[in-house]
Amino acid sequence: MKKVEAIIRPETFRALREMLEDVGINGLTVSEVAGCGQQKGQQGLFRGNTFEIKLLPKVKVEMVVEDEFVDEIIHIIQDTCSTNTVGDGKIFIYPVENAIRIRTGESGKKAIV
Ligand SMILES: Nc1ncnc2c1ncn2[C@@H]1O[C@H](COP(=O)(O)OP(=O)(O)OP(=O)(O)O)[C@@H](O)[C@H]1O
Ligand SMILES: [Mg+2]
After folding, report:
1. What Gene3D superfamilies does this protein map onto (predicted)?
2. Mean pLDDT of the chain
3. Which ranges in 1-113 belong to alpha helices (H)?
4. Is ligand 1 within 6 A of the CB of residue 9?
């Protein structure tokens, strides 16, 4: 199992949610976050003057899935969350040791469907 964590533009979340639903991904965790990347929160490309680091609002989407779904999810995120401009976000993939459904005690793959 892997955790796919995507940090995306808030305005792209709705489209991503719909696409994930279409391929049967139901379990996800969503948070409103703030962050910055290599432009240090500046919207656009700057040179010269120093400037303060700014934190921009982003949405973090986390989903734990079976390994074989990871590539498809990455493609969906790239298709729905890209505007081809700086600040489109990032995807991080983590290994997941286990998952347990609290109600039933099911674990592993059975717990993430
Ligand atoms: N190395 C990182 N670690 C953790 N979070 C990150 C990292 N890089 C980016 N993020 C998060 O992703 C958000 C979007 O980053 P962003 O898309 O601006 O990345 P970037 O590296 O600057 O790429 P780009 O040049 O396309 O903007 C940030 O606001 C931050 O929340
Ligand atoms: Mg950036």
Report:
1. 3.30.70.120
2. 93
3. 13-22, 70-81, 109-112
4. no
Q: Is the pLDDT of residue 79 over 70?
A: yes
* 49 within ligand 1 shell (Cβ under 6 A): no
Residue 48's pLDDT is what? 60
Ligand 1 touching residue 70 (CB < 6 A): no
- How many angstroms separate the alpha carbon of residue 21 from the centre of ligand 2? 28
Determine the distance separating the centroid of ligand 2 and the alpha carbon of 112, expressed in angstroms: 32
Other C-beta atoms closer than 10 Å to the C-beta of 7 total 19
Q: Residue 55's pLDDT is what?
A: 93
Q: Which domain holds residue 45?
A: 2-112
